[in-house]
Structure formats: structure tokens, C-alpha cells
Backbone:
């Protein structure tokens, strides 16, 4: 059942059950950020943890460089996930870009952890859909 909320302009806007998917996208981004931070720390401090050597990956990258990239990317995802949860427009736009980038970059590591890559790309697609089609509804709840 849809609810209506008053907007700051005096009108009303309809909120559907899809707002739950937007909040789900925010939680996924927030959680993915923390997972990226953990993976980044592992790549920095214990790069022999990964079973595939850098030469066996689609992308030729040093695990130390990849660790720093994941650490920074994870921190940005945590901030953007929070922004999406509180209905910030900049966070929705940034979230779509980050989810698309995350999906493409993970393809390069499919040899290292294929099941994880498929899961991450699937979640990225859900995040992109929720933010593009229904992202505005989270902003209404904030008002």
C-alpha cells in the first residue's frame, strides 16, 4: 500500500514499497564498503592469502596496489551508502557510478574468486536498478 508524504513545497508525493529496495541498496553499499576495506587490508598485509597470483588474473595488478584501491573504494562506498539511506541526491548518482564501476572491476578478478564475483555483480545490478528507478523515494521519507 502506497503512502503519501507532504513535501516542502506543500504538495504530496507517493511512496511505494520500492523505498525498501532503495534502503536495501544503501545497506548493500554500506556492507560492500566494509567488505572491500577488509579485503584491502588482507591484500596489503597477507597477499599470499589469494590463491591466484597476479599473473593469473585478467588484470595485471600488484596486490598491494589492489589493497589500497579496495581500502579507498570501500571507504567511499560506506559514505555513499549512508548518503543513499538518508536520501541524498549526490549519493544516488555516485552510488550508480560506483556500483557500475564495481561490477566492471570485479570481472577482472573472476579467476581469483568466481562465485564471489557473480554475487557482487548481481548485487550491483540490483543497487543500480533501485537507485535509478526508485531512488527519489528515500528523499521523501527524510522530509
Residues:
Amino acid at each position: 500500500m502506497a503512502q503519501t508524504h507532504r513535501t516542502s513545497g506543500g504538495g504530496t508525493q507517493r511512496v511505494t514499497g520500492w523505498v525498501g529496495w532503495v534502503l536495501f541498496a544503501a545497506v548493500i553499499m554500506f556492507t560492500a564498503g566494509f567488505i572491500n576495506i577488509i579485503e584491502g587490508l588482507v591484500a596489503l598485509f597477507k597477499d599470499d592469502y589469494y590463491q591466484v597470483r597476479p599473473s593469473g588474473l585478467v588484470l595485471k595488478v600488484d596486490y598491494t596496489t589492489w589493497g589500497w584501491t579496495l581500502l579507498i573504494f570501500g571507504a567511499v562506498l560506506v559514505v555513499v551508502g549512508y548518503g543513499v539511506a538518508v536520501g541524498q541526491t549526490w549519493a544516488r548518482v555516485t552510488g550508480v557510478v560506483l556500483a557500475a564501476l564495481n561490477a566492471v572491476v570485479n570481472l577482472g578478478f573472476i579467476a581469483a574468486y568466481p562465485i564471489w564475483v557473480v554475487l557482487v555483480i548481481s548485487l550491483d545490478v540490483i543497487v543500480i536498478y533501485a537507485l535509478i528507478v526508485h531512488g527519489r523515494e528515500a528523499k521523501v521519507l527524510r522530509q
The chain has a mean pLDDT of 79. The two ends are 20 Å apart (CA to CA).
